Amino acid sequence: MDQLPLIKIIGERTASEREVPIKNIQAALDKNCWFVPEEIPVAFVFGQHTYATMLATPDDLVEFAVGFSLTERIVKAVGDIKAIEVIHVRAGIELRMKIADTCMQKLDVVAMRFGRIGITGCGICGLDNIDELAQTLPKITREKNVFSAVDILSAIQKLRDHQTLNRTTKSVHGAAWVDDRGNIVAVKEDVGRHNALDKLLGQCALKDVDFENGFVLLSSRCSYELVAKVAQFGIGLIVTLSGPTGFAIDKAREANITLMVQSCDGVVEVGG
């Protein structure tokens, strides 16, 4: 297992939700308040470079830093991240990371070519140009595990019970890791589906999870960037509650990733 990064938290933690007043214009309500999730800027800083700024729920920030760094291929392994500073400031949160010299040198080259690398709200950060969307994803060549429809449906039915923030706010995405026995072993939530997935993959990487023996379950639709993130870990199955996009199907075929979706008839494989 890789050596884990040193962690330092600076400043007062930002709440992940807030209470707001509500008013029904048609009838009286049993309650006059509601909880909504926070959505604040989270900047990923490597050395002197701000790679991207995401709008995200301010929870599980160490896992977010690790997962994002891995899925964006800034580092190759957890061991390449030497230290993480989570800095809470008035305007948002900075995730300052010290990474291996070889990774930093590669990032410096990109910064010299393009100036500031990028600020974005979702999905496809750090691309030098649109042609990078056509880059071939890593392909799974091993024999993939087969999961029963019963286990997949069971995990889908249990996901809501594991989404504590969504139970309160009813407005955040969930990403879960399901093991080879159909058990949900980890769940992360965020206002952004890609953020939730980064947080989940970051936690799994920190815990040295065996990515060959399980699958990712998402409360959202399946879009290209989710497939691209999962492909970096060699995960063979993505299950979503809503259908995939055409581009996601194309890239999943390229990476030999199976896409399955909840349907009225149970669960179906899409585009295989």
Explain what you see.
The model is unreliable at 114-121 (pLDDT under 50). The chain has 272 residues and is of the alpha/beta class. The chain is globular, with a radius of gyration of 19 Å. The strands form three sheets. A six-stranded mixed beta sheet has the order 9-8-10-11-12-13, sandwiched between helices. The protein folds into two domains: 6-134, Roll (Ubiquitin-like (UB roll)), CATH 3.10.20; 149-269, Cytidine Deaminase, domain 2 (3-Layer(aba) Sandwich). Strand 4 (40-46) and strand 5 (49-56) form a beta hairpin. Helix 6 runs parallel beside helix 7 (246-255). 28% of the residues lie in helices and 29% in strands.
Sketch the major β-sheet. 6 strands, mixed
Give the helix level as a range of percent.
Answer: 25-40%
Contiguous helical run count: 7
Mean pLDDT comes to 89
> Taking strands numbered 1, 2, ... along the chain, how are they ordered across the largest sheet?
9-8-10-11-12-13
Level-1 CATH class name of the largest domain: Alpha Beta
Strand fraction: 25-35%
Strands, count: 13
Task: List segments where confidence is low: pLDDT < 50 over at least 5 consecutive residues.
Answer: 114-121
What is the count of structural domains? 2
Distance between the termini: 34 Å
Rg from alpha-carbon coordinates: 19 Å
Question: Could you say what the CATH architecture of the largest domain is?
Answer: Roll
Structural class: alpha/beta
